[in-house]
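Hey there, shall we discuss this one?
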Amino acid sequence: MRGTISYRAAFGFVPVGFINQKPRLWMLKKRKIALASMALFMGVGYGRFGLAADYTQVAALMDLRTRVSDGVHSLEEIARMAGQRGFDVLFINDHDRVALEYGIWPLRNILKKKAERPSIHTLGAENYLKMIESASKEFPETIFMPGAEAAPFYYWEGNYLKKSLTVCDWERHLIIVGLDKAEDYRNLPALYSGYSIKKAVRSVSPGFLLFLIPLALGFVMIKRGGKTRYFGLALIAATIPIAVLESLAFRSSKYDPYHGKQGIEPYQRVIDYVNSRGGMVFWNHPETLSGAGNLGPVQKRTPPYPEVLAESKNYTGFAALYGDTTTITEPGNIWDQVLTEYCSGRREKPVWGISSADFHEDGGAGDKLGNYPTVLLVKNKTKASVLDALRQGRMYAYRGSVDIPRLVLEDFSVSDPETWHKGIMGEEIVVNGRPAIDILITVAGSAEKNPVTVRLIRSGALWKTLSGETPLRINLKDEMRDSGQKIFYRLDAEDRRGRKIVSNPVFIRFRF
């Protein structure tokens, strides 16, 4: 099957639904009867009957690390494993740069200690992209999506001499996808990644003032004349280059790590930068519990950071499922708050949920390649279609052992019974009547009778909790109606074997 499952559940109930509603259908206008017939017999994608048939489900793996950074496997090894396990879309997200610098005041840019690990930066962005291009030729059935995981900012607390030096927020990570040019990686506005005039101007440090003393002394010695002036010239000649090296740190970020927390702006700059180059940004593992520990003599501390979903804007989404416990997808929590802001017009873009593999080694930390797929609804299996599905939110997050068959969300759609207009995940429709919600959950390639609990969330509030065995079909009509208001539905589903689905929302606007 190679990871593709037809999203065709709508046809499973069309004939029965048509017969059961026959008396009502004959009461509709002739135009609606004609359109219904077209949808039923021709499958043209109109209304409740045919729209979902336009898409195929493709299970993709996001947030994969190779030997380029802190991964154990080569890209070729990952591609072979993924192909054997039915995954044809791989998002490669090696670290853009893994570096720490700590300087001694007042000469922080001269008297400093630096540690750097392998990354896209050390390999070179050109070589990184060539590696992915080469793998694409070797594995033509696999779609490789280049990207990076970035930690745009960190700051220091404590004292090195007192053995309390701590690097903070070093593991606040962003997943970046959709950048195909080497210069886009080189110029990411993160700490220590490249040249910036803004950084040069802003970074004139207090240490620069100390250089005024030898400079002034040099000018005094020149003014005195005689042999003294030669010593003055030598003093000035030695002082100026050191002052430039110390104070003009040519970096692409305008921030440094010595002035504490800088709020959301260092991250927003990266989000805006990636957006301006046609890419997408996802917040990674925002509730991570692995952000504390030691890096040699230095301590590290990155507390969970779910608040960034509300603080930042114009990012594409976030990791809804990954290796830690997540709560932000619970009804009424931060994700729903952000979606509500979008519905009310206070936020320009909706926010989508994905699964983040955070993959470094097969079997490492108990996880295998394939335990956290993001299932995309694509019109065809191409790179462009994959990126479009990701950008538009036509996908759901999944968690489950790759060793057992996956739960499949065959259908999650909302339709208007009066017009048969239908919306699926990531879409918005306008309805005249009461919204009808259709859900179908199966087990991939199996007739397994598996108990599943489904929670249906409406505009941030838990609306229904329903249970049943797979294949589980749910058909509901919502009697709630509010003229002019935009609302959303989303769901999650889980079984006793730990398999879980988190859908993206369907948006509804009432016409009258």
About this structure: Confidence is low (pLDDT under 50) at residues 1-51, 195-205, 248-253. The first helix runs from residue 14 to 20. The longest strand covers residues 486-495. The two ends are 45 Å apart (CA to CA).
